[in-house]
Amino acid sequence: MSGGMTRKPDGIVGGMTVREGRDRFLADHSLDLDSYTAPGYLLAIGRLRVPLPNPGLLSLHDLHHVATGFGSGLLGEAEVSAFELRAGCRSFMVHILCIGAVLLGMIIAPRRIMGVWKRSRGARTLYHTAIPYDALLDMDLVELRQLLGIPPGGLSRKAVERA
What we know:
Blueprint: E1 6-7, E2 13-14, H1 18-28, E3 40-45, E4 48-53, H2 58-68, H3 74-87, H4 92-108, H5 110-119, H6 133-138, H7 141-148, H8 157-162
Antiparallel strand pairs: 1-2, 3-4
Helix pairs in contact: 1-2, 2-3, 3-4, 3-5, 4-5
């Protein structure tokens, strides 16, 4: 590994900035920065593509994916939505989107979604932070997790299994 990053035994990459984590998340899930300013996005549910409005907070939502370790598939979106509902949403539209994703997640994997809900107790989201976005990107990933009240390894099932 380059750039001063070290892989620890539990799988956490030490020395990774939030920007590096975000860029890796976007690349791994075939996403790009243009989605942050697009008027809407497509939610994939199997072969169905559902157009949804962009609430203007996707950049912070993606940092929640990075901090928690949840993916961007249907179940990952349900997990990050459970985290966001429990830790604090900012707008009516985000509430509606999160409730919809959590309801789908409760049909697909109820124990998993309830586990996220329990593990998110006491956590915070970035939706209410006064820290500028670029300053968040320059933080160390573990530092961001600490700010949000998330364990150093994240909230995903893999992180819990490693703990």
